[in-house]
Design brief:
Blueprint lengths: L22 H9 L4 H8 L6 H7 L5 H13 L3 E5 L7 E5 L1 H4 L2 H12 L13 H10 L11 E7 L2 E7 L4 E5 L7 E5 L1 H9 L4 H7 L2 E5 L4 H7 L6
Helix pairs in contact: 6-7
Length: 229
């Protein structure tokens, strides 16, 4: 028997709907508007102020960003909160439902990594995007020797890299006493990611430095699908 849905109004659903009784269609009703997934992508690294999101999504426009945030709040995947003093800033962060999207978003990023190619002059590149790209490279089956808390520094941004037996979690923020601390710059990480530069060459040139338990470096490199050679 064929059912035709004439109207489908769910809380948080955008005005336009696929009107299909399908989990994917409903998910796209909620999240499929332009920029919505990129807003969620940026929040994977932790809470952000409106200005942080605006700066990290060049081209969106403040009115459209406000609209997307309102839609995502209505969908229950993000929430507006206030950071504790001394910051006391209003921020947006993922809810539990939003966190449930993490493996899906990282999986999409992993699928897209093989299609990146060399960056063009028109493409926006930022440390946060590269940190998320690092997360997308992670291979849990090769990570047993890398379990622990590490630090990744790209330009002037620090990220906490926590590897467990079941996965990796990368968040913006400094790390106290990391087992390994890796520091580099945007051009070097782009070149390493694309395969144009080896890690050993970056280490030799001094554009990538490592501190801490150096015996764990090969395991960490392997966990992210790279090679020291």
């Amino acid at each position: 028997m064929k059912y035709i849905v004439r109207s489908c109004r769910l809380p948080g659903v955008a005005k336009r709907s696929y009107n299909q009784y399908c989990g994917l269609a409903i998910a796209l009703d909620l999240l499929g508007e332009r920029w919505s997934l990129l807003v969620l992508r940026n929040l994977l690294l932790g809470p952000q102020r409106f200005k942080d999101l605006s700066d990290g999504l060049p081209g969106i426009g403040t009115a459209l960003l406000a609209e997307r945030l309102k839609q995502l709040e209505s969908a229950g995947v993000i929430v507006k909160a206030t950071l504790p003093p001394p910051a006391a800033s209003a921020v947006y962060q993922l809810t539990a439902d939003g966190e449930a999207l993490r493996p899906i978003l990282v999986g999409l990023a992993r699928w897209g990594l093989t299609r990146l190619g060399e960056p063009t002059e028109q493409q926006y590149i930022a440390p946060d995007l590269l940190a998320l790209g690092v997360q997308a490279r992670f291979d849990v089956d090769a990570s047993a020797g890398a379990v622990g808390v590490h630090e990744l520094r790209i330009d002037d941004r620090s990220y906490r890299v926590e590897i467990t037996e079941t996965g990796v979690d990368i968040r913006a923020g400094a790390v106290d006493a990391p087992q390994l601390s890796i520091a580099t710059d945007t051009p070097t990480l782009v070149a390493v990611n694309s395969g144009a530069l080896s890690l050993s060459a970056a280490l030799e040139a001094g554009t990538l430095t490592v501190a801490g338990d150096l015996d764990r470096l090969p395991d960490l490199v392997e966990a992210f699908g790279l090679s020291l050679a």
